[in-house]
Amino acid sequence: MSAVAKDHRGQSRLYRSMVELLDQAGVRVDGPDPWDLQLKDPSLPERVFTHGGLGLGEAYMDGHWDARQLDGFFFRVLRARLDQEVRPLRLALHALRMRLFNLQGFERAWTVGKAHYDIGNDFYEAMLDPRMTYSCGYWDHASNLAEAQEAKLDLICRKLRLHPGMRLLDIGCGWGSLMGFAAERYGVECVGVTVSKEQAAWASARYAALPVEIRLQDYRSLDEPFDCIASVGMFEHVGRRNHREYMEVAHRCLADDGLFLLHTIGKNMRDTISDAWIDKYIFPNGDLPSVGQIGDAVDGLFVVEDLHNFGADYDKTLMAWCANFEAAWPRFEQRMGERFRRMWRYYLLSCAGAFRARDLQLWQWVLSKKGLIGGYRRPEASS
């Protein structure tokens, strides 16, 4: 037991409350297990009960607590739903802001590109797979990150029934991995839109020899025909007030007999808001959808042909990203600093724990305008 814990055991009501709360999840303060919370500063209980998850994350960034297995800590905490036990009044303003205002309007849509995706292509090259795929891999028959990402890209292409001569729209194309793969393996022409200048520059250079066009463009201004549409890891930035408009854009751009694949992280309950720490430090103005919210958005526009959940695979993907990040960190330490390292590690491992606890999901929706005659059959995973 640390000196900090000894000095405050039995003296702080908030400390005792924190110990009792964590005990429900099988987590001990200064315990021997790798997922146990190691207390470094006595201010932690007050920060947690005053600011909730935001306080917990900021305290970790400040070095006020640690856990040898941070993903294991969050798996237990979220599996026990302790996040629902601590709801400080100070987060009410964050919730009210999320519910009352359109935080993902046209002007704000570019914020996440600058804050998250533009921090350096070299940094993401060190963390991601060789194709720079920044979304959940598909691990059915994969033994490493590169294989899992190629399996995911191929699965998307087969779900969309791509063949040579088709024209594919990628809404939120990232560094262009899907378009590059689809052009190389399936002979399709691709157009992708992103709000990240760094992504657009990297993808344009990487795929200059392929029929791939990268546009720095908001999805709302799209109005041209495509045989099929994909959107991978972008819908999380759209926001509940814009879900319907997003689907209307996809509907007007999709051919009458075409398919639209939506790949998105999702939440289990409709009436919840984004994590305040993630919103402040990682994905500004993010808003994870629920199944019901997506259903509302597609109502009368699309037929849901298939819904595939492989959210448990995001745990493996995030752990692989974190291993790459830790291995590459000496190259970025001087440029980014220790506080960034703790922030990024907290981001990756807390999310891994959340997916492991099934607190978060990963869905692939396949949508058609009128329903396919004879129905839709999901392709089998390739081995």
What summary fits the major beta sheet? Answer: 7 strands, mixed
- Enumerate how many helices there are, as a single number: 14
Mean pLDDT rating: 91
Enumerate the strands of the largest sheet in spatial order, edge to edge or round the barrel. Answer: 5-4-3-6-7-9-8
Shape by Cα distribution: globular
Chain oligomer state: single chain
Return Rg in Å.
22 Å
Q: What is the number of E strands? A: 9
Structural class: alpha/beta
Low-confidence stretches: 1-10
The amount of beta strand, in percent, is 5-15%
Distance between the termini: 49 Å
Write the element-wise H/E pattern from the N-terminal end onward.
Answer: HHEHEHHHHHEHEHEEHEHHEHE
Please provide a brief summary of the model.
The chain is an alpha/beta fold.
Task: Give me the secondary-structure topology.
Elements: H1 3-8, H2 13-23, E1 38-39, H3 44-61, E2 65-66, H4 70-79, H5 92-100, H6 111-117, H7 121-127, H8 145-159, E3 167-171, H9 177-186, E4 189-194, H10 197-206, E5 212-216, E6 226-232, H11 243-253, E7 254-267, H12 276-281, H13 291-298, E8 303-309, H14 312-356, E9 360-368
Parallel strand pairs: 3-4, 3-6, 4-5, 6-7
Antiparallel strand pairs: 1-2, 7-9, 8-9
Helix pairs in contact: 2-3, 3-14, 4-14, 8-9, 11-13
Summary keywords:
single chain, alpha/beta, seven-stranded mixed sheet, two-stranded antiparallel ribbon, 45% helix
